[in-house]
Design goal:
With about 400 residues, the chain is an alpha+beta fold. It folds into 4 domains: about 160 residues, MoaB/Mog-like domain (Molybdenum Cofactor Biosythetic Enzyme, Chain A, 3-Layer(aba) Sandwich), CATH 3.40.980.10; about 45 residues, no CATH class; about 90 residues, Molybdopterin biosynthesis moeA protein, domain 3 (Beta Complex), CATH 2.170.190; about 70 residues, MoeA, C-terminal, domain IV (Beta-clip), CATH 2.40.340. Helix content is about 20%, strand content about 30%. The protein is built from 7 helices and 28 strands. It has a 6-stranded mixed β-sheet, with no helix packed on it. A 6-stranded mixed β-sheet has the order 16-13-17-21-20-18, sandwiched between helices. Strands 19, 22, 24, 25, 26 and 28 form a 6-stranded mixed β-sheet that branches. Strand 8 and strand 9 form a beta hairpin.
Amino acid sequence: MRPLTQTLSYQDAVRIIMDAAVPMARTERVAIGAAHGRVVAEDVRAAGDVPPFDRAAMDGYAVIAADTAGAGVHSPKTLTCVDRVFTGQVPARGVGPGECIEIATGAPLPAGADAVVMVEDTARDGPAVRVLNAVQPRQHVGRRGADLTTGQTVVRAAQLLTPSRVGALAATGIAIVNVYARPTVAILSTGNEIAEPGAPLAPGQIYDINRYTLEGVVAAHGGTAVVLPAAGDSLEDLGRALEAARRCDIVVFSGGSSVGDRDLMLDALQRHGEVRFHGIAVKPGKPTLFGSIGATPVFGMPGYPTSCLSNAYMLLLPFLRRVARLPPWAPRTVDLPLARRVASATGRHQFYTVRIEDGRAEPAFKASGDITSMAHADGYIEIPAQTDVVEAGTMVTVTLFQ
């Protein structure tokens, strides 16, 4: 046994980890249908005007605005309808003085017309159309290039492609966009006791939880999970696993980072790379390891499921988002009174899970090895390292799981 006699503060651990987060430089070209949530790698400019022609903004009649001057309910102006045009059609003829053309919303404006009268402001009898409300030039007309003009920047490099930005790309006819590649994240569980869900448990075995929780965090925050086979509790197995995993952009191990005789991740990483720290003054998640093999960052997460997932949220998530060039994570929070008194060990920054019940934060933490500590919680509160008790009724900030 090798007890952790020195631990970093949570703040120092975050600083070291974030300093090592190098934004992705690789790029790839993807179809815009697959581009939602990706980060653009270069400015994209419009190849043409949007819309590409003057068009009707209302169903009604394309007119010469001057022909409607003075029109009102009691003094209508009568025009002759000479044609009709729908979306996707090119007008067969233009509009002359005293004429109008029936037009659908989005249809190209006929030559000669400079306004559209809404159908609600007209009354029709055969080809005769009585205009009951005057319009001004350009009224109810969508001008060519009103949204984007040729050469205008549609999206800028490093912007996140939201649905609206993808829509803007589609509006200009762009089908392929250059984006930053998603970082690949090797996920690997360690331990002779690990079994895959669906398989029968042998004596002394437990099902692998951390692989699946880590996969979820990676997928939700800009990475591509690469799941590797579980590694046994030997330096040889862990060394081979580390060498295989380093082909990815980020490596995340779970298990083997604590202080037992078979917790060998520290030794394996020292043998194959560099250790930046081992041990953080947090609860849960104290025996967390961080280092690198060459330029590849390596996280050694605790094997306990709650410790592993908690530190994935607090440490891996912000690191991954910076590498993926995503905006910093800003989860929702809510301020509520604490339902029951909570004791905390001084000297360790605690992330304490809670449920929201009847407008109060109800403690939900059970133990670091119990995944339901988080599965049955709505969020967590933070208890600073210097605080040993938070009394019932204290207003606390709950960071919500999303």
